[in-house]
């Protein structure tokens, strides 16, 4: 039985509608892709945000995390959440929640007696890596075989040229990317006042004085100026900050 003209018109309209829906979906996908950071982009990642559960492993099983005191299901542990071994600072993520007391994890990192944390943050999606100085092994990436810059200061990774092992690095603007600069204090000079009637010379701190020879002059450590707080002293010069794990899009 042949198709009527009305049926044909209706089918054409349906096909056009489906084509229009497909075009709309493609346009939306392209728009979404435009919001993705470009390959080579670096962004901050709060990897250890929200400790969902922590405890101590009570048994050893390959690719398992077993804790007889845990309540993984009740605590809302889910596949993809980051697992950290607090004993040796290794990481994996949850593959499946097997029971209240057992998880399957992607890497065999936990044995009996080791402390662990599980974070609500999901592990990185494909195409993103931490910037820990590791050599990338990914044939689909234009950076395959290259050393990822060690922005996070991982002492097991390669050190950025010009920096020291363990240096954790801020990013700043520049016309050329990847140039490393050590921390520094801007060059400057200091003036001082001297109340010493018998001193000679304009810059002498150890000159003779009306009350005897000055044999123990020294520049003292930073001291508090009333109203400005006690000076904070550390092994580096830094602004107020919060640490984040730096990650990079590699494909």
Layout of SSEs?
Blueprint (H helix, E strand, L loop, with lengths): L4 H30 L7 E4 L5 E6 L7 E3 L14 E5 L4 E10 L2 E4 L9 E8 L5 E3 L114 E5 L2
Antiparallel strand pairs: 1-9, 2-7, 3-6, 4-5, 4-7, 5-6, 8-9
Tell me the span between the first and last alpha carbons.
54 Å
How large is the radius of gyration?
31 Å
> What is the residue-mean pLDDT, rounded to a whole number?
85
Which range best describes the helical content: under 10%, 10-25%, 25-40%, 40-55%, 55-70% or over 70%? 10-25%
Order of helices and strands: HEEEEEEEEE
Strand content of the residues, in percent? 15-25%
The shape is extended
What does the main sheet amount to? 6 strands, antiparallel
Strand order of the biggest β-sheet? 2-7-4-5-6-3
Number of helices: 1
Low-confidence residue ranges: none
Structural class by sheet pairing and helices: alpha+beta
Query: How many strands?
Result: 9
Describe the structure.
- The strands form 2 sheets. The protein has a 6-stranded antiparallel beta sheet, with no helix packed on it. It has a 3-stranded antiparallel beta sheet with strand order 1-9-8, with no helix packed on it.
- The chain has 1 helix and 9 strands; from the N terminus they run αβββββββββ.
- It is α+β, with helices and mostly antiparallel strands and 251 residues long.
- Strand 5 (90-99) and strand 6 form a beta hairpin.
- The longest helix has 30 residues, at 5-34.
- The protein starts with a helix and ends with a strand.
- It has one helix spanning 5-34, and strands at 42-45, 51-56, 64-66, 81-85, 90-99, 102-105, 115-122, 128-130, 245-249.
